[in-house]
Design brief:
heterodimer; A: mainly alpha; B: alpha+beta; Glutaredoxin
């Protein structure tokens, strides 16, 4: 047996979720996200979570500034609003375009991740059943039951992956946004401050790494939803 | 059942947001839990020994920025290219702002040698302007500098651009003759809660307003100080 085969067997024996291995898997993720975000309230929720995540990323970099001038202090309203919006990528100067774009991507993926996880939990009966929620129909519930009954490994992995993805994604994006000084501190604690010299993008690499758990958790969620329907459309075609 | 499901969703949301807050809180600055709002400028730890520091603008300006920067820090370079340049050509030139420089070398190793050279330059009589020009030169050539060449290149630049004994300045940097000045800045920064660069401490009418870290925009500083 090949090394890859042995790894797959070991993964299955341990009940670990699979990894995307084909273009079909990527299409599954894209289709699942598109279908979930086609439901207005999940789309709104996704945008809200993405904005929340982005705000968390950028405002936490200057807590004192926000606390002293936006929330507290005696500045006029327009000055408070100016300071607030200037902390965001592409508005202020805190982030280079590449870093800003990565932060937006991580925030958007976080929003999509939470929306898909919430949809899966609420509509597919992973943790129980809510009736008549949005008129999606009995067919969906039946598929949800089928999905839940087909195997809990994918569902559990999707739910856990979502949490892991969001948390790790936040960590990764946060580290990149902290700037190289914090990164140097972290690396020196780990005895590897010289690694910083080898990072050509001064920490942006950490944001790229953050995309991995976010995309994986989206795949695990979509994988756990195979056989189910969203808005009357089958997830897996 | 419904309650269980909602509890689970709430728990996931809380875990995610907790992760965001927790992870990113670590990147935030040191005194974020408290703050020194309203502290008189002469009692704030960031201003210890302020009169000995390089500064631009009128000492009687209504607003003051104390900037802790590292010449090897890319974020400091970005700040200087954007907000720093506009602050100096605008409010500083107009007499509305005093911009004070303090060194805080914590990013790349060559920054430590560079700040020794900066302090050695500033210690020379009449070399205030050279200090600022050398700082700008370090930012402009950041990607070309390293621990092996920074002092050689400093000497070459000083010899070509300043009326100073370049070799003597570099000798002082190598022997860390002005390390006390670097240490004074590091002590002031650490006492004030600086843990990244650049970090700016903003004062208005003799009173601490807030601090801002990273390559914050001109509009951020101008709005906070009502310039």
């Amino acid at each position: 047996m090949s090394g890859a085969g042995r790894l797959t067997r070991a993964r299955r024996r341990l009940g670990l979720p699979g990894l995307p291995s084909s273009r079909r898997d990527l299409r599954l993720v894209a289709r699942t996200v598109r279908l979930v975000l086609g439901v207005p309230r999940y789309a709104a929720g996704s945008v809200a979570v993405a904005l929340l995540a982005l705000s968390g990323f950028v405002l936490s970099q200057n807590v004192a500034l926000v606390r002293d001038t936006v929330i507290g202090g005696s500045l006029p309203l327009n000055a408070r609003l100016t300071i607030l919006v200037e902390q965001y990528p592409f508005v202020g100067t805190s982030y280079e375009p590449a870093a800003g774009a990565m932060l937006v991507v991580v925030a958007a993926l976080t929003g999509a991740n939470v929306a898909v996880a919430a949809y899966h939990l609420r509509e597919h009966g992973v943790l129980g059943r809510e009736t008549g929620e949005d008129g999606t129909g009995d067919g969906e519930r039946a598929d949800g039951q089928a999905s839940a009954g087909r195997g809990t490994a994918g569902n559990a992995a999707g739910g856990a992956g979502s949490v892991v993805g969001v948390v790790l994604g936040a960590l990764g994006a946060g580290c990149a946004a902290c700037g190289s000084a914090v990164l140097a501190g972290l690396l020196s604690l780990a005895g590897g401050s010289g690694l910083l010299l080898a990072l050509p993008f001064e920490g942006l690499e950490f944001t790229l790494i953050a995309l991995v758990p976010l995309l994986l958790s989206l795949f695990w969620l979509a994988d756990g939803m195979r056989g189910a329907e969203i808005r009357g459309c089958p997830v897996d075609v | 059942m419904q309650r269980t499901r909602r509890s689970a969703i709430a728990a996931i949301a809380a875990a995610g947001l907790g992760g965001v807050a927790g992870c990113l809180g670590g990147g935030a600055s040191g005194d974020d839990s408290g703050g020194n709002g309203g502290t008189p400028i002469d009692q704030h730890p960031a201003t210890a020994g302020l009169t000995d520091q390089p500064s631009l603008g009128s000492v009687d300006a209504p607003a003051t920025v104390v900037a802790f920067e590292d010449p090897s820090c890319p974020t400091c370079r970005n700040f200087e290219r954007n907000a720093g340049a506009r602050l100096r050509s605008g409010p500083v030139a107009d007499g509305d702002l005093r911009f004070v420089s303090r060194v805080f070398p914590i990013v790349y190793p060559w920054g430590k040698s560079a700040v020794q050279a900066l302090e050695a330059v500033y210690a020379r009589d009449g070399a205030d302007a050279v200090y600022w020009d050398l700082f700008a030169h370090y930012f402009a050539t950041q990607s070309d500098l390293n621990g092996d060449n920074v002092l050689d290149r400093t000497e070459s630049w000083l010899a070509s651009n300043a009326d100073l004994d370049a070799a003597a300045v570099v000798a002082d940097a190598e022997s860390e003759a002005y390390d006390f000045a670097v240490e004074a800045d590091l002590d002031a920064g650490e006492a004030a809660g600086t843990d990244r660069t650049p970090t700016l401490y903003l004062f208005r009418d003799g009173t601490y307003v807030t601090k801002a870290s990273g390559s914050v925009s001109y509009e951020t500083v101008a709005s906070a100080l009502q310039l």
